[in-house]
Specification:
alpha/beta, D-Maltodextrin-Binding Protein, domain 2, four-stranded mixed sheet, globular, disordered N terminus, membrane, lipoprotein, signal
Length: about 500
């Protein structure tokens, strides 16, 4: 089959042969690579099923094989996990795809990466799995609304890892706020005032001007910008204006959000090089006591608090989410119900029998026993059960040995029956409540279930144009007229067609 490439920047493809070799080998694998004869085992064969899995890594190092061995025992498999750092995962994914080297099970990083792959899905390069789910009792429990959000032309090609729909908020230094006499911000003006005070009023008391209000990274979606922009009234990717679906950056609130961030950067309240800062470095600014606020998934607080206290034992952390915009209204950016999706390339999964064996593995992953192993680790080693809830025994051990698999878990708490967590971290427990409270104010993407042929062909490149223009505006390299010119460029290169197609699909 002639391989149809997804739309990706040219720079992604211009990689060295050494990198390609590393991708083909899966980087550092957590277990020795499995080999197969190329023949599909018979249904009666009890030989372990060999499965290779490519997935993002959100920890500094690859995990040992403790969890893998337990999973293999529970599911009668021989597993090879290919972990790649999340910060550069899209590059590894696209390079491996371009060379025909995707493994049998391929995790995509997020909604944007999934959209990027839709042209390859339409080209027949991945297995359609919808017709098979009814054969697997546990996979059949996956949420229909989330599955609908991942269908392509009405067909299902993916399994998903569930995610809290409205988990966004702020994690902040409560000890700094208390020292400066500040309450949790009720609106974006008070949020600005807190960030400015954290920058200028020596909150750590060392007599030096060495703190900043907000730490951010090179991601306008999963960094802080999207969350704050939603608080300021910006729609979720697309909004309705004059009875038509329009892109978020054509709304005046988007300019307001850029002005808000430009002011933060101009005044040194945010790390000035945020557009070139990785997630790891962003979090380190908070963990080391340099930044007072981290805006993103509130459930990140457990790890951020733990690591911060290693450097600043007296630090006190809290979470907060109800930040109103200038109109006094609350809004919470909503995710589509999944963090990433799992796909099965036809180049690696050769026939229906092999696909069914892999789906059988994922069906077992959704049983409570295996789901708890993926998400919490091994009972009495990584966690204990308290009041029918899981409690981590050693957070560092869990971070090192379990978290990479937690990020690859399938389904949700309620669809798998896995334990809900309990933590000694007070702000983490509070975050669990706030993410439910946020649901009342969740702002959905009205274009999520719609299709646009032009978006699939050009959307990735066009979105890079807007991302670049947004960063340039915040950095002061272009003004409002320059940004509006970029929007017109977006429209002329295919954006108008995307708007037209989405509105036609809505009707």
């Amino acid at each position: 089959m002639k391989r149809k490439l997804v739309s990706i920047p040219l720079s992604v493809l211009l990689v060295s042969s050494a990198l390609l070799a590393a991708c083909a080998d899966g980087g550092k694998t957590a277990t020795p690579a499995a080999t197969t004869s190329g023949e599909t085992p018979k249904a009666t064969d009890n030989k372990p099923t060999a499965i290779t899995i490519m997935t993002p890594l959100n920890t500094p190092e690859n995990p040992p094989d403790v969890v893998i061995k337990e999973l293999e025992k529970l599911t009668n498999t021989k597993l090879t996990f290919q972990f790649f750092p999340a910060d550069t995962y899209e590059e590894k994914l696209n390079t491996t795809f371009a060379t025909g080297g995707l493994p049998q099970v391929t995790y995509l990083k997020n909604q944007a990466t999934f959209i990027q792959m839709k042209s390859a899905i339409r080209d027949g390069q991945f297995w359609e799995i919808g017709p098979y789910l009814k054969e697997f009792p546990n996979l059949s429990k996956l949420k229909s609304t989330t599955l609908e959000n991942t269908k392509v032309d009405g067909k299902l090609y993916t399994l998903y890892r569930g995610v809290d729909i409205a988990r966004q908020g702020m994690i902040y230094r409560k000890d700094w706020a208390d020292k400066l006499g500040l309450k949790p911000p009720a609106n974006t003006e008070e949020l600005y005032a807190m960030m400015k005070a954290f920058t200028e009023n020596d909150p750590d008391g060392n007599g030096k001007k060495d703190t900043i209000g907000l730490t951010d990274r090179n991601d306008l979606i999963y960094g802080s910008f999207k969350t704050v922009a939603t608080w300021l009234g910006v729609p979720n990717n697309w909004g309705v204006k004059d009875g038509k679906i329009q892109p978020e950056f054509t709304f005046p609130e988007y300019i307001t959000a850029m002005d808000y961030y430009k002011k933060l950067r101009d005044e040194g309240i945010i790390n000035k090089d945020f557009a070139a800062t990785s997630k790891t470095d962003q979090q380190n600014l908070f963990k080391k006591g340099t930044a007072g606020i981290y805006i993103g998934a509130m459930t990140d607080v457990e790890t951020l608090e733990k690591d911060l206290k290693k450097n600043v034992p007296t630090a006190v952390v809290d979470v907060h989410s109800m930040v109103a915009g200038k109109d006094g209204k609350f809004s919470s950016w909503a995710l589509p119900g999944y963090a990433n999706v799992i796909m099965f390339p036809k180049s690696a999964v050769k026939n229906e029998a092999e696909l069914k064996k892999i789906l059988a593995f994922f069906d077992k992953m959704m049983t409570p026993e295996v789901a708890n192993t993926m998400f919490w680790g091994i009972k009495d080693v990584h966690y204990t059960v308290v009041d029918n809830k899981a409690k981590k025994k050693d957070k560092e051990l869990v971070e090192r040995e379990v978290k990479p698999f937690t990020d690859a878990a399938v389904g949700d708490e309620d669809t798998t029956g896995r334990y809900i967590g309990v933590s000694d971290s007070v702000p983490f427990t509070k975050a669990q409540t706030l993410k439910i409270d946020n649901l009342k104010y969740a702002v959905q993407d009205p274009a999520a279930p719609l299709e646009s042929k032009t978006y699939l062909e050009k959307g990735v490149q066009l979105q890079e144009l807007i991302k670049d223009a947004t960063n340039k505006y915040i950095y002061g390299n272009i003004d409002k007229a320059g940004f509006e010119k970029a929007v017109e460029d977006w429209k002329n290169r295919g954006g108008n067609k995307i708007i037209e197609e989405y509105n036609a699909a809505k009707k």
